[in-house]
Amino acid sequence: VCVEKILAELTEVLAETRGGDSRRWTDEAVDFEEADKLVYLKAALAETLRLYPSVPEDSKYAVEDDVLPDGTVVPAGSTVTYSIYSVGRMKSVWGEDCMEFKPERWLSVQGNRFEPPKDGYKFVAFNAGPRTCLGKDLAYLQMKSVAAAVLIRYRLLPVPGHRVQQKMSLTLFMKYGLRVFLYPRQLQKPNSAASH
Asked: H-type helices in 19-169, by residue range?
């Protein structure tokens, strides 16, 4: 269902910006303005990063004595490690449906605008506060561009029997890769694109 929604959004944007001839949609990568309109795709990417952050753990070094919000004293010279992977799966942070892949949690009530959590420390895949990743917007732009380029051209189906297993490391990756079959997509008008 998620891929169908992404494809419907993508074909609608491309029909609007490049015209109704679907052969023109794959001439070049989506540009900045087109990518900016792909709000459901951004929500799906954010939801993916919530559950599978690129960097699953991070550490901070205390240069001076500090106290955490819960009263925990952190002496100068201490290293504090936190699990971004775990925070993205906590019921106390994300609710009872925390293990569900649900891009809609990132959208406005109308579904037409990306809305990150009001608490800037709830989603920490790009860090948070004054140390938020400077490349966050560029990362989203690149992810949207690659996802759009692949999904507009191909249907992806997992190779039967291929074991998908994540591996924790400095970065989170798939231990055996992700083996898929690519089938050329037959592009159609936006209102019927999600069916193929």
From this structure: 32-36, 39-51, 84-87, 91-94, 136-153
